[in-house]
Amino acid sequence: MESINSFYFHFFKPEYRILAAFLFSIAFNLYAIPVIIRIARAKKLYDVPDKRHHHTSSVPTLGGLGIFAAIVTVSLTFINTSGLNGGGIASNLTALPPIIAGLTLIFFIGMKDDLLNISAWKKLTVEILALLILSVIGDIRLNSMQGMFGIGELNYIVSISLSIFAGIVIINSFNLIDGIDGLAASIVILASSVLAIYFLAAREWEFAVLSFTIIGAMIPFYIYNAYGVKNKIFMGDTGSLILGFMMTVLVFRFNEMNTMQSVTPHFMAGPALSFAVLILPMFDTLRVFAVRIYRRGSPFEADHRHLHHILLDLGYSHIKSTRILVLVNIAFIAFAYFFNFLGNSVLVIIMIIVAILLSGLAIWMRRQKFAKNKKTSAAA
């Protein structure tokens, strides 16, 4: 078996495996998603519209099943965990089993929530367990803040604790921004693409394979989710939670690599750049949680305070709202990249201030529109 593996990873050079994983992941979901839609219709597994939702017809919610199956199948096929045919920083991804284990836990709790609905605290418990597997057994965690606010290398307990907290924020941020067509999928494709380019440049082949696997799985889903009419599908909690988990994996590895001076390219403000990559879901989630807590409500209670809700209220369609938010996210990434020399603390402070100003402007514009509509209605 070892000789077979040796031949396999010798014949399939890293660049070939990356391309193969990307194409196979696309093909997998191009086949799987229509099948899932037919099954969901046959079994009446729909997301039924109500006052919390913006769609007007019942839509299958099992898109996460195809995303999960594509990521697991392609990863196990094309990622080198054997240490054979080494190259780059790491010649293998020995943490793949813990990654798949954590991902599977997240998948099952998401699927249960899509089908039966469960409490936020039960989901949180499973998320913590999955992140413990990732950070303790897989050793994929935040190990340094690279001088952000005077904090450098973290001791083990602090590293694990911060990794779990950050992972919970990232996972749930993707869950909460999945409110309009194409948004969560677009942000995942954007974030994975940025990190994939970095892993390629740094010759971190196995994480490049993982990144392109995620991108490939998301492209067919995005098409059906954003542009499907009779064949539209949602990713559900299953999809948003597992994608949040996978973004956690990629971002943690990105930050770890930027603590190694020997790695090229090296960013002196790695945490700030990773924050920019995920700023839209993370900032919006933290902002909404803060407002809910300030108003003495549950941070997990659904409302229409998210940025995508504000854009819809301003009259933009789902697709236009998604494009606006993705372009804003790209602008933050470009800023963090070109001004990396400013360092983590300065970059993060500037990005948070700009994000607050932009969200404040959007909220003010919505209030102005509501006030104008109210005056119009009163005059009529």
Primary descriptors:
380 residues; single chain; mainly alpha; two-stranded antiparallel ribbon; 14 helices; 3% strand
Folded structure, characterized:
The strands form two sheets. The chain has a two-stranded antiparallel sheet. A two-stranded antiparallel ribbon has the order 3-4. The chain is mainly α and 380 residues long. It has helices at residues 2-11, 14-43, 63-78, 96-116, 120-137, 156-177, 183-201, 205-227, 236-257, 270-277, 279-294, 307-313, 318-338, 344-379, and strands spanning 46-47, 59-60, 144-148, 151-153. The model has no long low-confidence stretch (mean pLDDT 89). It contains 14 helices and four strands. Helices cover 71% and strands 3% of the residues. The protein is globular and about 70 Å long. Helix 3 (63-78) runs antiparallel to helix 8 and helix 8 packs antiparallel against helix 9 (236-257).
> Got a strand count?
4
Please indicate the count of domains. 1
State the end-to-end distance.
79 Å
Could you tell me the strand content as a percent range?
under 5%
Order of helices and strands: HHEEHHHEEHHHHHHHHH
> What sort of overall outline do the alpha carbons produce when their principal axes are compared?
globular
Radius of gyration: 21 Å
Strand arrangement, largest sheet?
Answer: 1-2
As a percent range, the share of helical residues equals over 70%
Kindly report the average pLDDT value.
89
Unreliable runs: none
Number of continuous helical runs? 14
Class based on secondary structure composition and strand pairing? mainly alpha
Q: Largest beta sheet, briefly?
A: 2 strands, antiparallel
